Amino acid sequence: MASHHIVLFGLLALSFSLVLATDNNPLFDICVPDPKSPGSKVTLLNAQQIPGLNSLGISFARIDFQPGGINPLHLHPRGSEILTVIEGTLEVGFVTSSPDYRLFTKVLQKGDVFVFPAGLVHYQKNPEHVPAVAYASLNSQNPGSILLANTAFGSTPKINTDILVKTFLLDKKVIRHGQQKF
Amino acid sequence: MASHHIVLFGLLALSFSLVLATDNNPLFDICVPDPKSPGSKVTLLNAQQIPGLNSLGISFARIDFQPGGINPLHLHPRGSEILTVIEGTLEVGFVTSSPDYRLFTKVLQKGDVFVFPAGLVHYQKNPEHVPAVAYASLNSQNPGSILLANTAFGSTPKINTDILVKTFLLDKKVIRHGQQKF
Amino acid sequence: MASHHIVLFGLLALSFSLVLATDNNPLFDICVPDPKSPGSKVTLLNAQQIPGLNSLGISFARIDFQPGGINPLHLHPRGSEILTVIEGTLEVGFVTSSPDYRLFTKVLQKGDVFVFPAGLVHYQKNPEHVPAVAYASLNSQNPGSILLANTAFGSTPKINTDILVKTFLLDKKVIRHGQQKF
Amino acid sequence: MASHHIVLFGLLALSFSLVLATDNNPLFDICVPDPKSPGSKVTLLNAQQIPGLNSLGISFARIDFQPGGINPLHLHPRGSEILTVIEGTLEVGFVTSSPDYRLFTKVLQKGDVFVFPAGLVHYQKNPEHVPAVAYASLNSQNPGSILLANTAFGSTPKINTDILVKTFLLDKKVIRHGQQKF
Amino acid sequence: MASHHIVLFGLLALSFSLVLATDNNPLFDICVPDPKSPGSKVTLLNAQQIPGLNSLGISFARIDFQPGGINPLHLHPRGSEILTVIEGTLEVGFVTSSPDYRLFTKVLQKGDVFVFPAGLVHYQKNPEHVPAVAYASLNSQNPGSILLANTAFGSTPKINTDILVKTFLLDKKVIRHGQQKF
Amino acid sequence: MASHHIVLFGLLALSFSLVLATDNNPLFDICVPDPKSPGSKVTLLNAQQIPGLNSLGISFARIDFQPGGINPLHLHPRGSEILTVIEGTLEVGFVTSSPDYRLFTKVLQKGDVFVFPAGLVHYQKNPEHVPAVAYASLNSQNPGSILLANTAFGSTPKINTDILVKTFLLDKKVIRHGQQKF
Question: Which domain holds residue B176?
Answer without folding.
Answer: 146-182
